[in-house]
Amino acid sequence: MTSSTLVVVLLQFAFAFSFNLGDNANSFEATYGCLQYNTNHGYDYAHPYYSTAKFKNLLITSKNVTIMRMGVLARNDGHIRLSPTEYPYDNTEMNEIVLSGWANTAIEIRRYTRKDHKTRINNQVLKHIGSAGLLSEFRPMMFTMEYDRLGNVKLTKDGDVFPFVEFKDPKISFNYVGFCNWDVPAIYFFDCPVEVDRRVCDRLVFT
């Protein structure tokens, strides 16, 4: 074997090795330190709500922007509910963020009044945009949710600079957060550590 042939073989081996490492990287390492909620109960179940005041990993910037990190593992329909109370079943105005509903094709931001765990009225769609393939049942989609006191909200995937969805609702409350599924099981990771890259000032999340 000539030296040039040996170099080619070694390069091919190195490429194959690095490629396989990428394919087999453990994406669940990004959930380290998170709390977890599993559900296959469906949309109308009385899912629990968690007080964000008890979260250990909330980050508040110098501009009074609050950042919390979370993730979703599901084939489709990650539903995040934001409520002013722990039991929003008495004509409570609240918000819901639908990630990759409609067979993993769209995001919808809603505001409605919930009368009980099965009944909601006065539904308003604040935003509806495409999101083909955002969620996966094999890899958690980790992201940060940023919000300020004016109701500006941004959701940004780990490692990205720009949000994949942003909206504004001056009435939105982040006192409590809840999760539910639609037609397939879902696993939610929440109160996750926010990893700050020391090289930048925007507090981007890197994993």
From TrEMBL:
Q: InterPro entries in the record, alphabetically?
A: Methyltransf_FA (IPR022041)
Short name of one Pfam family for this protein?
Methyltransf_FA
Q: Which residues form the Farnesoic acid O-methyl transferase domain?
A: 43-193
PANTHER family in alphabetical order: AGAP008648-PA
Report the domain of life of the source organism: Eukaryota
Q: Which UniProt keywords apply?
A: Signal
From the record, give the transmembrane residue ranges: none
This protein is called what? AAEL003114-PA
Residues making up the signal peptide according to the UniProt record: 1-16
